[in-house]
């Protein structure tokens, strides 16, 4: 039986008997909905209605879920803004989405308000109305605002050649995916679903909503829980999680730490191809492995199927309800079985389109095989062919888009960010196979007038610039070349780019005591990285600068009461050394100047944030190409 696309998501949430757990609490779903309904009243008082885009900038947890549901309750559309994302990128996203209203937790309210000049920020923690921008938790809840099925549900940003690109998805499209999952996956009240995907991805919305509409309990993993196998395993075992949806790199993380926890009876893999060796590792007698295929532009899942045990790549498919998948040859005709062509996806999941100057993209085309008038299909850029068994097999791409650790990356965007730095003359970026996954590699030609540097030294110089513009998975490994190889037509000869010489395995020593753990956490925030930092890693080699060191010294003074002059940080730029200094000085050093620069030390957090933005803006103006150049 095919589900109708009018599946009522909010009603299912209100009727759910599930609980939601994060690192701080466990809350019944009716209580989450009650708070979301009160938030929705505040949002409507600020003008939110059907189709109004509202930014959500909050840490992963129950508060974030409340904000998402509250926006939908008010009839609005969600624009997820990952708090750990690069400031410059978040500003672009807020501007392109035309945001005038943001929902945030207290921790990130200042960040949310800085993303636009006239943004109103509603914070989640306040218990009563305290003026404009405050969430009145004492407000009377009300029923969800009625909206048409084709109303906007969310706008999520993907990597594009000109920068982050917004994709508009309707409520009908989202409801269709949730209805399919509700019917086919067998989730129910006895299940516990672990949500691990970053909110920068649309899949995060599916992971948060699907278990709840099915009546299953939800555990929302903190960002740090998804970076280390031991922490992720502990989260799953502590909550007896029975279901997990993750990209292949997360599943590999679990497998490296031993067998997949036996409690995970439902193993869902999406976001990238499922390699045969990983599929073998994930199959078990008492577990079911699903493979999902889709694109942000076609609403998360377009095809789904159970993966049977066996050798070779698992076939993709079949298409989910109200979805059609075509393989078209070079004449845009339907390709027969076994003939390679470009994969196109049609049906209710196809996005409205892109935002702003991307709106007229040729990726969205009329669907000549549809019965509905004005139906469209999306040209995915995937190359594939139909197999004799009816499954779809992917064989490549028509463009230079790659997937890195579950994150879609347009190589052109990374190249543009590299060329914007004064130390880089030219660059070519590619996805290169490494240990069963794709690694992002940038072949760069350094500025010949600059100092001679190794690839590692060059990355340390430009990493702060890249981190200001790109998420961590989009920061590449560098290979330096005297010039890029060219074809006869003057294009980069990508086939002639040399294979990278990968360094030997790096053994990162994790934090060994509470002080090292705390210091590692603050440095991860300061560097804006999701990668684990070893206690012996050189922090300046990872991209730290003087402002980060100043803020770290201020944090140490506030947290431990230990003065930490700048010269001590420069002389001991590892977590182990800094933790040793702090531990030795605890309860013995008098409170005093925390840096060697009194003027910087006297700045407030707001002033440091303003200074950092000014430095980034100045660097951008200095390196951006002028008109006519």
How would you sum up this structure in a few lines?
It contains 18 helices and 25 strands. The chain is α/β, with parallel strands linked by helices and 629 residues long. The chain has 4 domains: 9-306, 3-Layer(aba) Sandwich (Rossmann fold), CATH 3.40.50.12780; 323-397, Luciferase, Domain 3 (Luciferase, domain 3, Roll), CATH 2.30.38; 403-496, ANL, C-terminal domain (GMP Synthetase, Chain A, domain 3, 2-Layer Sandwich), CATH 3.30.300; 514-618, Non-ribosomal Peptide Synthetase Peptidyl Carrier Protein, Chain A, CATH 1.10.1200.
Radius of gyration: 25 Å
Portion of residues in beta strands equals: 15-25%
Number of helices: 18
State the end-to-end CA separation: 60 Å
Uncertain runs are 1-5, 127-132, 589-629
Q: What is the level 1 CATH name of the largest domain?
A: Alpha Beta
Percent helix, as a range, is 25-40%
Lateral strand order in the biggest sheet: 2-1-10-9-11-12-13-14
CATH architecture of the largest domain: 3-Layer(aba) Sandwich
Q: Quote the CATH topology of the largest domain.
A: Rossmann fold
- At the fourth level of CATH, the homologous superfamily of the largest domain is ANL, N-terminal domain
Which structural class is indicated by helix and strand composition? alpha/beta
Shape: globular
Number of domains: 4
**Largest sheet report:** 8 strands, mixed
- Overall mean confidence score, pLDDT: 85
